[in-house]
Amino acid sequence: MSQAEHIRWFRGAAPYINAFRGKTFVIVISGEMLRSKLFEHLIHDIALCHHLGIRLLLVHGSREQIDDRLREAGIESRFHRNMRISEKSAMPVILQAIHDARSSIEARLSMGLPNTPMSGSDISVISGNFVTGMPLGVIDGIDMQYSGKPRSIDCEALRELLPRHIPLLSPLGYSRSGELFNLPSEELAAEVAIQLGAEKLIFFSRDYIRRDRSDQFSTAECLQLIASGEASDSLQALLGHAVHAVQQGVERVHIIDSTLDGALLQELFTREGAGMMVTNRFYEGLRQASIDDIGGILELIQPLERAGALIPRSREQLELDIDHFLVIEKDGMIVGCIACIPDAEARIGEIACLAVHPEFRNAGFGEQLLAAAEEQARKAGLERLYILTTRTSHWFLEHGYQPASLEMLPQGRQRRYNEARKSIIMSKTLD
Ligand SMILES: CC(C)(COP(=O)(O)OP(=O)(O)OC[C@H]1O[C@@H](n2cnc3c(N)ncnc32)[C@H](O)[C@@H]1OP(=O)(O)O)[C@@H](O)C(=O)NCCC(=O)NCCS
To answer: What is the CATH number of the domain that holds 372?
Structure first.
């Protein structure tokens, strides 16, 4: 990366850094991830996020480590419905494997040798009996023995720790009777994220689905993916947890590429991301603009103005018109905007300055901005809207706008029509 690219990247990350400070993210480190050669880098990236003020809670898995240990002890791993049957005789081995997995994360997060990425990073990781568990019981006639599910989570204690420490939860549930249950880490993480009201729940997986239009999936789309069988078994399970978490109030669940070095940072701090995101907040970023958005709007529209797609608009003009703007904000960034400038007397309004950031196009943002602007125009009593466009006439045609003549514009606007630009005039009657 050249120095200029480096600086551009850092600047691009700034809004995310601001937006994430003080937010709670629950990250699952699977047994597979623990074994990966990327594990050490992931720990560095986790440490970086912690130092940027993100409140992190880690949940680790141990499936592979338990399999290894059982194999070494000559004990067969038994599963039912893809869940381990944790037999009483195997529990000491299972507990040892979980203990080893937890220790390896604690050890890595404690490193701080000079001249390493962890140099000077002083992180306190805290594990404890925050989770009580209960037995899964008998499923399809099979006793799951010491395999359990979360029963309660001491969120009060975790919330107190989060601002300064990284709580690390093992896939274990303590019971009132002093027994320990082996819990599925993904389910535990989803429950913790829900109960803490976390902003993000993050899984790593080899399997995830990318598509051209957008890497955001609603819960309805995830349920379709599960039903269609398009996703692998392991991805289906993760999607199931993601849907549950989002439906219960977790804002976003990320399923990130476990094979990509730096995937966590790429997903969190760049627009491209590194996996898929499940959220029902797809359209929630649409809102009325305020004076504080002017910088963000300028950043969005200036490249389009330079390219001739939008008529140049000064900061002063923007300030005057700001009450007529709607914006879409995503993770603290303005990624779309539109203005509807009314001529209340003539009951007509101009749709202007419609722009969607190139990396967020073809995901319906443009359509949604237009629909919202039209709705506002209706509410304001306007009967007709018009638009002057050089390159987007077909898009407007598809949204119910018809070619119109100069005479239908309000007199003042007719006078300001730029003959040289040869914009096509289109209009729509509001019903
Ligand atoms: C026009 C614009 C706002 C659309 O935003 P968007 O969020 O991508 O729009 P949507 O997702 O709602 O619609 C995308 C669809 O419109 C199509 N589309 C995009 N630009 C188009 C154009 N100029 N003409 C015809 N169709 C177009 C896309 O191909 C896509 O079609 P598909 O669903 O069949 O794949 C965006 O392309 C943009 O910012 N363009 C530059 C600025 C501009 O020209 N603004 C209009 C000023 S009058």
So the answer is: 3.40.630.30
Copy the structure tokens of residue 11: 């600047």
Instruction: Say if ligand 1 is within 6 A of residue 300 CB.
Output: no
Closest residue to atom 17 of ligand 1, CA basis: 395
Ligand 1 pocket member 394 (CB < 6 A): yes
E runs forming strands in 331-392? 333-343, 348-356, 384-389
SS3 labels along 297-311: HHHHHHHHHHCCCCC
Q: Which of 32-36, 283-287, 306-310, 330-334 is predicted most confidently?
A: 32-36
Q: Is the CB of 393 inside a 6 Å radius of any atom of ligand 1?
A: no
Per DSSP, the three-state class of 106 is helix
Q: What is the pLDDT of residues 366-406, one digit of tens each?
A: 988 998 899 889 888 899 999 999 989 999 999 999 999 99
Ligand 1 close to Cβ of residue 356 (< 6 A): yes
Ligand 1 neighbour 338 (Cβ under 6 A): no
**Tokens 């925050």, residue?**
130
Distance 183 CA to ligand 1 centre (A): 47
Whether ligand 1 lies within 6 angstroms of the CB of 365 is answered as: yes
Query: Can you give the residue range of the structural domain that contains 394?
Result: 286-429
Q: Distance from the CA of 243 to the center of ligand 1, in angstroms?
A: 30
Cβ of 363 less than 6 Å from ligand 1: yes
List the one residue out of 234, 233, 238 whose CA is nearest residue 222. Answer: 238
Residue that finishes a domain, picked among 216, 243, 278: 278
Q: Could you tell me if 294 and 242 lie in one domain?
A: no
Look up residue 172 and give its two tokens: 């274990």
Average pLDDT value for the chain: 92
Q: Tally Cβ neighbours within 10 Å of residue 197.
A: 13
Residues in the chain: 431
Distance 389 CA to ligand 1 centre (A): 12
pLDDT digit string, tens, across residues 81-99:
888 999 999 999 999 999 9
Same domain, 57 and 128: yes
- Burial 281-291, CB ≥16 within 10 A → b, else e: ebeebbeebee
Question: Using CA positions, which residue lies closest to atom 44 of ligand 1?
Answer: 309
Q: Using the atom order of ligand 1, give the atom closest to the CA of residue 353.
A: 47
Atom of ligand 1 nearest to the CA of 368: 12
Within this chain, do residues 230 and 349 fall inside the same structural domain, yes or no? no
Residues 396, 270 within the same domain:
no
Instruction: Indicate the burial class of 64 (C-beta count within 10 angstroms; 0-12, 13-18, 19 or more).
Output: middle
Nearest residue by C-alpha to atom 14 in ligand 1:
362
The whole-model pTM stands at: 0.67
